From TrEMBL:
Residues 176-306 form the GGDEF domain. The modification 4-aspartylphosphate is found at residue 59. SMART domains: GGDEF, REC. SUPFAM superfamilies: CheY-like (SSF52172), Nucleotide cyclase (SSF55073). PANTHER family: DIGUANYLATE CYCLASE DGCM-RELATED, REGULATORY COMPONENTS OF SENSORY TRANSDUCTION SYSTEM. Keywords: Phosphoprotein. Pfam families: GGDEF, Response_reg. The keyword Phosphoprotein applies. This is Diguanylate cyclase. Residues 10-126 form the Response regulatory domain. It comes from the Bacteria.
Length: 306
């Protein structure tokens, strides 16, 4: 974390005692924080969707909704779950301390408190939250990197196999069906050889886009290898998958690579296979789709074979 700067952080305090509020506002403002103080829980709950503090200080004993109840309400809100909550209370009863942590608080400070200590605790919890947020973001980035094909930005083979295996197990348990489509660009080597690898890359990217655009949101399209793509069509028998494959082919037919004043057209050959309850694993379905693709190539390309 770069140098810790309190002015970047908003602290929200809820306390029914106005003297406490004034004192907190003074201490935290002096320390450089943005601070907002509220007199009761309801006032806060009315604001909850319009304000996102970096840390909250809660009084425990308050009329109507007390601090513990408020803490539980806050933690039940998804976009509030990560905000650290510190109790600031005159009560040092052990059952309150325990209940505060159980309700989701990260710290418990008794009044009267030492200013420096409170500020140190606030800084610690904000820094911890910041580090946690960064780790989570890094995990999301990493997951995207691990599941995405770099050239086309659609799913990669590994991600495809993970999800397809999951679907395979679901199909086995629940007696449902799904289908698989494999497609391969026709005479792709000619594109590379005649116009160069970068043009080949553009063609691959465009085909990936068209493929992705042709499927339902819940279906999955991935780059299987070089200029081959694979699609899982969930809950679909082979005829339905054929409709999807036709849509993909029509979309790919729209591609016109502008090369030397000409518009280069791309075609694909397509193989389709359906899950059968005798299948032992995903590879068997992929093999059937692959063999169908092979027949499509042998019968003149630019066609779909089941
Ligand atoms: P067919 O109609 O039988 O499929 O003929 P084809 O020329 O498409 O056959 P093949 O599958 O043998 O050719 C695939 C070529 O794709 C070979 C490889 O050099 C090229 N290739 C694989 N990955 C990439 C890539 O990421 N970018 C580019 N530009 N070319 C690639
Ligand atoms: Mg109170
Ligand atoms: Mg190929
Ligand atoms: Mg090919």
């Amino acid at each position: 974390m770069a140098e810790y700067n309190p002015k970047n952080f908003l602290i929200l305090a809820v306390d029914d005692n106005s003297i406490n509020r004034i004192m907190l506002e003074k201490i935290l403002t002096k320390a450089g924080y943005q601070i907002k103080v509220l007199g009761d829980s309801e006032e806060f709950l009315n604001l909850i969707n319009n304000i996102k503090p970096d840390l909250m200080l809660l009084d425990l004993m308050m009329p109507k909704i007390d601090g513990l109840e408020l803490c539980r309400l806050i933690k039940a809100k998804k976009h509030y779950q990560e905000i650290p909550i510190i109790f600031l209370t005159a009560s040092d009863a052990k059952e309150n301390v325990i209940e505060a942590f159980r309700s989701g608080a990260v710290d418990y400070v008794t009044k009267p408190f030492n200013n420096e200590e409170l500020l140190a605790r606030i800084q610690t919890h904000i820094e911890l939250k910041f580090t946690r947020d960064q780790l989570k973001k890094a995990l999301v980035d990493l997951e995207k990197l691990a599941t995405t094909d770099e050239l086309t930005q659609i799913s990669n083979r590994r991600h495809f196999l993970n999800l397809a295996n999951r679907e395979f197990n679901r199909a086995k348990r629940q007696n449902i069906f799904f289908s698989m489509i494999i497609l391969d660009i026709d005479y792709f080597k000619n594109i590379n050889d005649s116009y160069g690898h970068p043009v080949g890359d553009i063609a691959i990217k465009l085909v990936a886009q068209k493929c992705q655009q042709s499927i339902r949101g819940e279906d999955l399209c991935a780059r299987w290898g070089g200029e081959e793509f694979i699609v899982v069509v969930y809950d679909a028998l082979i005829d339905e998958a054929k409709h999807v494959a036709n849509r993909i082919r029509e979309k790919i037919a729209e591609i016109a690579l502008p090369i030397d004043d000409e518009q280069f057209k791309i075609t694909v050959s397509v193989g389709i296979a359906q899950y059968q309850d005798t299948d032992q694993n995903i590879d068997q379905i992929v093999s059937r789709a692959d063999r169908a693709l092979y027949r499509a190539k042998n019968h003149g390309r630019n066609r779909i074979v089941l």
